[in-house]
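Competence protein ComEA, Paenibacillus taihuensis. Tokens?
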Amino acid sequence: MRTQARMKLDPQKLLIIGLLIAAVALVCTALYRPERDGQPGWAAVNEQVKQTIGPIEKVADSSADAAKNDEKKRQQTRSKVSANASASARVSAGATGASAKDDGGETVSSDGKVDINHATVEQLDALPGIGASKAKAIMADREQNGLYHSADDLLRVKGIGPKLLEKLKSFIVLQP
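Tokens:
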């Protein structure tokens, strides 16, 4: 009978033992952290947000950098155009005794823009997107159709489209 008395447990003791086992199970579960890649198809939300926003931030940063680079390229091209204009004017003046003016107008304005109505092939060639063949085509179009009245008249020249024209507008000027 004594063994039966010992075997019989009080309901309070059973409750305490059950709670202790549950507490140990909760602590073990809290401390156990499975690897993040353990479940296929699952990704942390932060990683997904970074993957989504990352390229957008890069595009925004690169757009700002591109705008700065475009302005630098414009300034470099203006300097190059001015240098080419000065050099060709010196060569022309030295060879013919003439001034740097053609038909009464300057070929390069004071702000470095090229007058497409009076520019030489070399000066036109210095413009961004204009090579020797397009410069010759501009000259041929100007000789065939007369002076340009607006920058949009350059669209007549083969190889000059709306995109290139927009790029050129900040580098050219039209003088009669």
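The helical segments are 2-7, 11-31, 45-96, 121-125, 132-145, 162-168.
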